TrEMBL record:
It catalyses: [E1 NEDD8-activating enzyme]-S-[NEDD8 protein]-yl-L-cysteine + [E2 NEDD8-conjugating enzyme]-L-cysteine = [E1 NEDD8-activating enzyme]-L-cysteine + [E2 NEDD8-conjugating enzyme]-S-[NEDD8-protein]-yl-L-cysteine. Residues 32-118 form the UBC core domain. This is E2 NEDD8-conjugating enzyme. It comes from Buteo japonicus. Pathway: Protein modification; protein neddylation. GO terms for biological process: protein neddylation. Residues 1-30 are annotated as: Disordered.
Length: 118
């Protein structure tokens, strides 16, 4: 599933740990965000509870995905809630942007689906 991870491994195998041609490095450089996301998406998929599902519309863009949560207990039991998650380029210094696609009343979610954690 992790297309970007396999691409990174394949590129390292073809070029070695470091390429000798700096021009090709600058055109094929992978962002810090993408390197972090390869590791974190693998960890997310391994530890995701059975009530949650992750969907990557484009497997080559790990920075954009959708999360579906179907609670099996509590006030929201039986509901199906979809969230859109976009990880900015400055990730790890800037938090991901999360938007609730399902209309819901919750004190931390606006009518437009914006999540407020302050």
């Amino acid at each position: 599933m992790l297309t970007l991870a396999s691409k990174l491994k394949r590129d390292d195998g073809v070029r070695g740990p470091r390429a000798s041609n700096p021009a090709s490095d600058s055109t094929r450089r992978v962002s810090v965000r993408d390197k972090l996301l390869v590791k974190e998406v693998a960890e997310l998929e391994a530890n995701l509870p059975c009530t949650c599902k992750v969907n990557f519309p484009d497997p080559n863009k790990l920075h954009y995905f959708q999360l579906t949560v179907i609670p099996d207990e509590g006030y929201y039991q039986g509901g199906k809630f979809q969230f859109e998650i976009e990880v900015p380029d400055a990730y790890n210094m800037v938090p991901p942007k999360v938007k609730c696609l399902t209309r819901i009343w919750h004190p931390n979610i606006t009518e437009m689906g914006e999540i407020c954690l302050r």
